[in-house]
Amino acid sequence: MNSELFTLPFNLGLYFILIYSVVRSTVWFRNLSRSDKLRLQRGFFGRPFMDSLREISMESLLHLKIFRKNPVLGYMHMSLAFGWFLLIVFGTIEADFFGEKHLNPPSHAIFFRWFNPDHGAEGFAGIYSFWMDLLLAFILSGLLLAIIKRFTPRLMGMKKTTKHTWTDRIALTSLWLIFPSRLLAESFTCGVHGSGSFLTGNLGNALASFLPAADIAPWFWWLYSLSLGTFFFLLPVSRYFHIPVELFLIFMRNSGISTGDRHSSYTEVQTHACSSCGVCISTCQMSYAAGIHDIQSAYFIKGLRNDRDIAGITANCLMCGRCEEVCPVGIELGPMRLIERRQGERSDRTLKLQEKYSLMRRRSTLERRPTQSYRYLVREEPEKADVLFFAGCMTHLTPSVIVAMKKIMDSAGVRYRFMDENGGVCCGRPLMLAGRDREARELINHNSDVIWKSGAQILVTSCPICYKVFRESYYLEARVMHHSEFINLLIEEGSLRLGYLHKKVVYHDPCELGRGSGIYEEPRAVISYVAELQSSEQERNMSLCCGGSLGNLTLSSGKRAMIAADAARTLTLGLPDELITACPLCKKTFVQATETKVSDIAELVAAALPAPRRENAKKRPARRHSRATSNG
Amino acid sequence: MSIAQSNKFGFTINRSRLIDYDSSDRKVREFITLKEPSFRLCFACGGCTATCTAGQHTSFNLRRMNTYIRRGEIEPLREEVKRCMLCGKCLLVCPRGVNTRNVVAAAADAIGKLERNEL
Fold it and tell me: What is the per-residue pLDDT for A349?
């Protein structure tokens, strides 16, 4: 029993994948920008390295994020990753401890039972082989769940699971084969020699009682080695490449590297770090509310990885950012999609297998030339003002919001100037979302000029779309505030006197304001000051998209209505008197989707303003505070 | 009436309404309809034009653009399409649910392709 020929596939595969990973990481490192290289080097000797180690053990091994989302799904990932890791670690220790000599080659640890068939009959060795059997059982339980999930994803809290390419399928099959073949190989060998613990020992005895175990065992050891070898060879061209790449990604991210605005090594690493787990698919409203199942981030990343023409997928996304919130790997999916939108067209070609192994791929894209030009805009000389109010294009379609804002600012005695009273210039964000950044820059320059010349201290906008771009892409001295923030400021200053409306309301976080800009508390503070705020099923960072998003260029109005109806239904489950939002686009979209009254936060506050005539006759209206309900 | 004015009287006083079908180029229209099928739903009510942000600063007129595209008049379209800011207001007012924003984006792409001789 010392023929070692069967270890060949495993050994070849293992050394191939080790060398390949090192070479590929080196190429990625070399292609990083100078500053990112410095970040990485500094990170290696500092805290980021320790943080990465912790994150790797928490996420790559234990999969805590998925665990929190769904315990069964988390257990499945954890048992496969952490269980396999433990099996390798303890297998190596076992081989080192009980093997013929110290520092064995890896194959002696992996195929330990073949080389030491009589090991582990009694004493400490017996306890150790019990532990090894327990680990194997742990992995096999996860594998069973994985098989169940593939056929009935709903049981695991997944609405949909990812469709795979053929290399993924072969890799998946070989991965699935690894552990059952190990179990059977060990069982047959144990059956012959009367060793093994509760799993391999008992199964081995049972099998050996009616089968010629000594003849069958080598076949399963071959199968075990072959499936490991196949898995290692397919690793770089399948989704399982995420296993080594994710470690690199975690370290890069902790060192302070971010996606930026063009394709780089980092986007390439992110592309390969996606495990196609499909969590983004079941979170996507386009999938479960509108029945579009082929444009989600997992498919977007897969298209990038295989250099397919994904213009359709790239454009057909609401850019709501929910997938980014749930992505267990933490890929910056929004910025990646925007980069891809900025790129020109991509010629569609199917990569040959050998091309998928190539180290640094040149993407076949055409440079996009500017399609728009705004030379017709006339630079104006604005009046000076402390507070500048920019309603935004969309707010002009909901004039009641503008009326309410004027009322509030007048009541608080704010000296403001209405920047786009007669219809202004677009903020540029819609162009950016359509991948036309250079054109957007023209509008940004125009608006910046007006804002700078006005000498304003505060720029208030009623539209979260404008708010995000003002904050991120404009260079302004003025403090940019969304009107919910501004109203909150006015209330805190005491310059706004408000009554209390006896209403139950629910608040919808607009994507660009909540996930996009991190404004969750101010609108809630304002609302609970004037009304009773209900919490809803999906809010804050998991808030739904209304469906009206400008992020999607191609979605039809019918599909938008389906998303809006679904979102409105979820929001109004608690039967609120009013559905409050802070975005004119959300308001326009929801009005058509629900029976409940939809108002902007400014309208709600304006309704709580005391009537001007009565104010003189009576004393101050009673003011009630209710801020406790905001944490839901 | 002066002589100069009287010379303009008659056929020259209005711009010609003649549509030259020989110079009509349907490629742009076909490209747009392929990229955004809802373009066919447009019944030229002009709501988009009334609300247009770019229209307040310039002569940009989505309803007129629609006519140009349908007639296959590419020359006037070339400059016109550049003026849109893609802000999406027209999308919200359209009574027929035409994805107007993508119509303009597709038209701009079509013009670009035409210049590169790819259409």
Answer: 67
Q: What percent of chain A has pLDDT over 70?
A: 93
Is the domain of A466 the same as that of A511?
no
Residue A227 lies in a domain: yes
Alpha carbon distances (Å) from A622 to A366, A440, A500, A501, A625: 65, 48, 8, 11, 10
The span from the CA of A334 to the CA of A613, in Å, is 50
- pLDDT at residue number A617: 45
Contact A581, A597 (CB under 8 A): no
Alpha helices, H only, A368-478: 399-411, 429-433, 437-454, 464-473
Question: Does B3 fall in a domain?
Answer: no
Q: Among A490, A519, A538, which residue terminates a domain?
A: A490
Report if residue A211 sits inside a domain: yes
Q: Does residue B2 belong to any structural domain of this protein?
A: no
Check if B76 contacts A (Cβ < 8 Å): no
Contacts A–B by Cβ distance under 8 A: 85
The whole-number pLDDT of residue B3 equals: 62
Structure tokens at A238: 């399948």
- Nearest residue in A to B99, CA atom: A556
For the domain that residue A319 is a member of, what is the CATH number? 1.10.1060.10
pLDDT for A475-528, tens place per residue? 999 999 999 999 999 999 999 989 999 999 999 999 999 999 999 999 999 999
Instruction: Measure CA A495 to chain center.
Output: 41
| A349 found inside a domain | no
CB contact under 8 A, B53 and A436: no
Residues in chain B, pLDDT under 70: 1-14
Residues A232 and A102 in one domain: yes
Segment holding A507, helix H or strand E: strand A504-508
Q: What sign does the CA torsion over A281, A286, A289, A293 have?
A: negative
pLDDT tens digits for range B50-74 = 999 999 899 899 999 999 999 888 8
ipTM above 0.85, yes or no: yes
pLDDT, residue A222, reads 94
Within 8 A of A374 by CB-CB distance, chain B residues are 83, 85
A30 and A177 housed in the same domain: yes
Give residue B101's domain range. 25-115
The boundaries of the domain holding residue A105 are 9-241
Domain boundary among A439, A469, A490: A490
Question: Does pLDDT of A353 surpass 50?
Answer: yes
How many domains would you assign to chain A?
Answer: 4
